[in-house]
């Protein structure tokens, strides 16, 4: 889920929530991992045409991960602040409706 503000044709800010998903194994004891995060980015844009923009973004992500075991609950957790960056393109079908494609990397703990 994203929300942001476009200051002009070249600069915007964005906040986003990301669900990094869950994973579990199939061997007893069954361990689970859940992770999510909030990302805050600054975006530099270049309007190629009136309807098409390209952009690059850089920011910081606050993430939280929880390790659990079925039947016992939470075993451990970890969280932190790490860099995020990406690039993408916007296409506007009308003045108030468009679509975008984006590639974004969350560099969590350098992994």
Features:
111 residues; mainly beta; 6-stranded antiparallel sheet; 6 strands; elongated
Q: How would you characterize the overall build of this protein?
A:
The chain has 111 residues and is an all-beta fold. 0% of the residues lie in helices and 75% in strands. The protein contains no helices and six strands. The chain has strands spanning 2-6, 11-24, 31-47, 52-69, 73-92, 98-106. Strand 5 (73-92) and strand 6 form a beta hairpin. It is elongated. The two termini are 23 Å apart. The model has no long low-confidence stretch (mean pLDDT 90).
Rg (C-alpha, Å): 18 Å
Oligomer: single chain
Helical content band:
under 10%
Q: Provide a count of the helices.
A: 0
The proportion of residues in beta strands is over 45%
Walk me through the topology:
Elements: E1 2-6, E2 11-24, E3 31-47, E4 52-69, E5 73-92, E6 98-106
Antiparallel strand pairs: 1-2, 2-3, 3-4, 4-5, 5-6
What's this model, at a glance?
The protein has 111 residues and is an all-beta fold. 0% of the residues lie in helices and 75% in strands.
């Amino acid at each position: 889920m994203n929300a942001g503000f476009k200051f002009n044709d070249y600069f915007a800010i964005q906040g986003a929530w990301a669900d990094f998903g869950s994973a579990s194994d199939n061997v007893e004891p069954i361990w689970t991992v859940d992770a999510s995060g909030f990302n805050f980015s600054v975006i530099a844009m270049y309007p190629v045409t009136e309807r098409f923009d390209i952009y690059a973004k850089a920011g910081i992500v606050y993430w939280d991960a929880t390790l659990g075991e079925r039947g016992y609950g939470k075993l451990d957790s970890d969280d932190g602040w790490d860099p995020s960056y990406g690039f993408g393109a916007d296409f506007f079908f009308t003045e108030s409706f468009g679509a975008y494609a984006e590639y974004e990397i969350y560099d969590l703990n350098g992994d």
